[in-house]
Amino acid sequence: MTDTGTSSAHTAAEGCPAHAGAVPLAGLEYQQTPSQLYRSLRREHGAVAPVLLDGDIPAWLVLGYSEVSYVTGHDELFARDSRRWSQWENIPADWPLLPFVGYQPSVLFTEGEEHRRRAGVITQALEDVDQFELGRDCRQIADRLISSFAGSGQAELMSAYAHALPMRAAVQMCGMPHTGTDTQQLVDDLRISLDAAEGDDPVAAYGRVGERIQQLVKEKREKPGPDVTSRMLMHPAGLTDEEVVQDLISVIAAAQQPTANWICNTLRLLLTDERFALNVSGGRLSVGEALNEVLWLDTPTQNFIGRWAVRDTQLGGRQIRAGDCLVLGLAAANTDPQIWPDSQIGAENAAHLSFSNGEHRCPYPAPLLADVIARTAVETLLERLPDLVLSVEPEELTWRPSIWMRGLTALPVEFTPVVQ
Ligand code: HEM
Of ligand 1's atoms, which has the minimum distance to the CA of residue 357? Predict the structure, then answer.
């Protein structure tokens, strides 16, 4: 066992020589900085590491910047339809990664011409979102959320703010009001489906999300409006209602968690790093720099599952078999020593792979919209609560023990209570 926690396991590797010495992903030590973790993984295993997913299921973790770019840029070799996975016979019905890996008839799992049709509709519908209006709506949502805790002088920003805001912004973009009991129920159900806490029933919650989105699609068919749902329904590609429901759920889910973690990781950087923390309220010009630095160093989607090899091929010196699963190591790629030889990671440019790359990358207007949401969230909070500080020592903040998302378990803060 090394200091990285990259211990070897052999159970699932038996019978698979390529996976001898594979690293169990669930055992990695996420409290350390991702650049150190992935550097040591790369030192030990190279740019493409044999890993074990939950239940000792073998897969490849692609750690190199050029290897992730190659995989995402070659759909003909590494594709999205998970039904080609050679491991399905070993996957139990209650496997925890099933919600992300199990095939669904949404844009996420389509390929080729069908993917271009579905993703084209989403791209067009998102392109027509007015960024000025989105910023204004986010400001209103932010103001409402802040007012709910401003009088108390303290808050746990992860649940009270960073998670709540992008969900409401996404729901509103799709044509629902961001307030009201109906919307609140949808927001709660989405939260439970994507990130269930103990005692939650994610399957029932996901069922209610599907019903509510179906109802929304029906309403917008009858009475279209200036929103993403109506634009998807009216697009000349002629998506069916079922396709629109599936893809709307994908859009809202894809928007929510990463944007929430982007907001929270940026607030953490602003509140803990002396380059920003000295004067948070005076540091408005630094918000953009902090948002960008987070995408390089603490990117919200640190690993993404994934791609499935279409045929036997080579990658980073490894023999990949048709049907193998590849996990995109986006955080590892961003901090790859090949692109940062002097260890000074971070740049003002946006050449990171945080929004992935290639055919299935986060569709072009989405990163811009996410930027509007995250920037407005951070700036509004700092304007409204200018003396905001952490209520614990920076070292006491803990990261969620997740290989997939990089986000805090909580972000407790305090400030002078605001009389309203
Ligand atoms: C308004 C906010 C957002 C929207 C509407 C959105 C939408 C989407 C959609 C629809 C996809 C599926 C694309 C496809 O399979 O063709 C996707 C993929 C993805 N998004 Fe986003 N997203 C948002 C924010 C973010 C943020 C903040 C991040 C991370 C910083 C992110 C990272 C990704 C990644 C890594 C993928 C997977 C791409 C792949 O398979 O290679 N997204 N997003």
Answer: 41
